[in-house]
Design a protein that fits this description.
With 151 residues, the chain is of the alpha/beta class. The chain has a single domain, classed as 3-Layer(aba) Sandwich (Rossmann fold). Helices cover 54% and strands 12% of the residues. It is built from 6 helices and 4 strands, in the order ααβαβαβαβα. It has a 4-stranded parallel β-sheet with strand order 2-1-3-4, sandwiched between helices. Strand 1, helix 3 and strand 2 form a beta-alpha-beta unit. About 7% of the residues have low confidence.
Length: 151
């Protein structure tokens, strides 16, 4: 048999969870803010090669999100060639229209470091993906296009 005190405590707990959830929902800028932040932005992915499942997965999900919010998504396929990847990055730095964000899968930390620094100096947020640096570097680039909360 369930006691009244237990039921009241459970209902009070559920009410507190509901209030906490509604407070979090009020802080979320929502899809409209993301749509406004990504509308017309050009995001380019340069993987090591497009012929393997990791690059295809990144391409699918990033394209889905960017195009879903009104942006333009492109890829460049260097096909395991560091020289072709460097050429693609160089072309994108001087391209018109310039990409809003470059996402680069690097074979190591040094291959594209000077080019990525040049891209950042040109005002292009860059995100690199390499074993130990993926979350931190991508989050810095993504933070630059993420919508800001209004006060």
């Amino acid at each position: 048999m369930v006691s009244w005190k237990g039921m009241l405590a459970g209902l009070a707990g559920l009410a507190m969870l509901g209030l906490a959830g509604s407070a979090l929902a009020q802080e979320d800028a929502g899809p409209g803010a993301y749509s406004q932040a990504l509308k017309g932005k050009r995001v380019v992915l340069i993987p090591m090669a497009m012929g393997f499942d990791l690059a295809q997965g990144w391409t699918h999900y990033i394209k889905k999100e960017v195009e879903g919010f009104g942006g333009v998504f492109e890829t460049r396929d260097p096909n395991w060639s560091v020289e072709a990847g460097a050429q693609a990055i160089t072309e994108l730095i001087s391209a018109d229209p310039k990409p809003s964000v470059l996402i680069v899968h690097t074979p190591d930390l040094q291959s594209y470091s000077k080019l990525l620094k040049k891209a950042q100096q040109a005002g292009r947020p860059t995100g690199t993906s390499w074993a130990s640096s993926r979350p931190r570097r991508w989050s810095r680039a993504a933070a630059r296009i993420r919508p800001r909360r209004s006060a």
